From TrEMBL:
Domain of life: Eukaryota
Protein name: Flowering-promoting factor 1-like protein 3
Biological processes annotated in GO: regulation of flower development
PANTHER family linked: FLOWERING-PROMOTING FACTOR 1-LIKE PROTEIN 1
Amino acid sequence: MSGVWVFKNGVVRLVENPGPDPVDGSRQGSSNTKRKVLVHTPSNEVITSYGVLERKLSPLGWERYYDDPDLLQFHKRSTIHLISLPKDFNKFKSMHMYDIVVKNRNTFEVRDM
């Protein structure tokens, strides 16, 4: 995992391959930045939708949690862990992928596309 941990507005997040920050604080995407994908390692399947992800998480004991209408959330009864994801799969970023990996060791990994 490479990048820089950034603390902004009370939230810490990992910024991968950070470039120089422009004066206005916006970031321009680099065309040579590799896209990350979440892979279910037992099947070597790339997670391409939340439906696929839910089918992989369910046998591991994760259940949908409907507390927040703006998020897709999964809770594992035997733990205090909660996976919170944006409703729109297009906003599914590497920080969400790494959260899933940390909470499901040896089952998922993040790879460069």
